Amino acid sequence: MREKRRILANTDIAEIVLGAPRGHLHLRATIKLHSGEELILQEATVANLVRAYVAIKTHPQKKGCRLVGRELSEGAKKKEFASWQLLEKESGAGN
After folding, report:
1. Which partner for 17 in 11, 30, 64, 73 could form a disulfide, CB atoms 3.0-4.6 Å apart?
2. pTM for the full model?
């Protein structure tokens, strides 16, 4: 059985390109690996990752953060936001 977990180190990465593709408004991050694989992250995914990272690095006690995908109703989300969101969830240990 193939392991479903993979750790990417800086040495695995050949290049990272960040920008809006032609004809699109939102940024995408393309991570090109030496293996030839490419990971493409949409702007919302990068924003959530950065939000969680900053929350941990700037908090005097917080050691971790867990974001869980949820679909929100129109009344439960901010205007202009997508229905599918990654929201912070208490993860117990490390927080």
Report:
1. 30
2. 0.80
